[in-house]
Amino acid sequence: MASAEVKVAFVSNHNGTTLTEVSLGSFLAPVCFLSRGLFLIVFHLGKGVLPFTWGAHLLLDFTTLIMPLVLSCTVLSDILHFVIMGIAVVDFVVLYLVYKNGKHPYQGSLLSTIDRFVQSRVESNLVPFVTVFRVLVNVKTAISILAVDFSVFPRRYAKTETYGTGVMDFGVGAYVMANALVCPEARGKHIRGSKISHVFKQLISVWPLVLLGFVRLASVKSSGYHEHVTEYGVHWNFFFTLAIVRVVASALLAVFPVNSSWQLALLIGGIYQVVLETTGLKSFLIYNNERSGFLQANREGIFSVVGYIAIYMAGVQVGRYLMKSRILVKDWIKVIRNLLLTSFGLFFTLY
């Protein structure tokens, strides 16, 4: 077997992992972000000021955010649950000690700061958690793309071939969702001019993605880099998918109200699933080995656009709600707490 064929086989024919592991892994980034915040709080309590240079900030971010994400999908992947629980326990202990230290001169200012935070409104200019989510998704995406070609990256985390759920499958969906949260429609920007001109502007605005798609296509073909054809197809890649999803979503939202985007998401996803089950489309996508013609050569990438559009429309609805919501942060904390308790209850019930 040639070297290129060996590399293709290395990233192909995987069945993914369990939904429990994927869900558990999604808690790592928030816990690491909490650790970073607690470190700054403890440092502030000890020093009173934050004389951090950009180098110190970079080292702190790399140690508390990047390194745990890298290790979690490499050498520590088999004990991921212990890693998350260990970091969470340390965070809770540190938080308890901070609250317990009532004699500290900075305790009053800290408590007032925390109180102002939990009483604040969930808006992007007050609680930039959407930005944090997008940053962490991009970081995890970059790590996974680079690590998937190495044996230290668990094969169960790679993209699945036909059925199953891999971490990278979850990642591409999260990436589309992250883009939808901050799109113009989610931020409440009004369409200026006719709807046709608006869609045309969106078509022009995706030229960087189209350019990157062609650059990647040309570089892969010219360099002889190994290609996982059944991922997106012979000529397709994720840049083309992002560009088409953005334009199609803009066209749909120019016709339908933004507040009905969740209904469009359900409708698109439901119709697509019915078509897959009642027609020969599923066999065409999964079991057809022919690559003649542009459609057959790139069927995985072209038809996957439908599912990504559904995810994008759902993300628009979530982003729209977050931008308009006047819910307090403390209410969101209660929701997250209840979700965590429910998740851990189901986990221990099943296992």
Describe the structure in your own words:
With 351 residues, the protein is mainly α. Helices cover 70% and strands 0% of the residues. The chain has helices spanning 3-10, 19-25, 28-47, 54-72, 80-100, 107-118, 129-147, 167-181, 195-205, 207-223, 229-232, 238-255, 261-278, 281-286, 294-297, 299-324, 329-350. Helix 4 (54-72) crosses helix 7 (129-147), helix 7 (129-147) packs antiparallel against helix 8 (167-181) and helix 13 (261-278) runs antiparallel to helix 16. It is globular. The protein starts with a helix and ends with a helix. The model is unreliable at 346-351 (pLDDT under 50). One of its GO terms (molecular function) is O-acyltransferase activity. The chain crosses the membrane at residues 83-99, 199-218, 238-258, 265-287, 302-323. Keywords: Membrane, Transmembrane, Transmembrane helix. It is a multi-pass membrane protein. It is found in: Membrane.
Descriptive labels:
single chain; 351 residues; mainly alpha; globular; disordered C terminus
Short précis:
GO terms for molecular function: O-acyltransferase activity. With 351 residues, the chain is mainly alpha-helical.
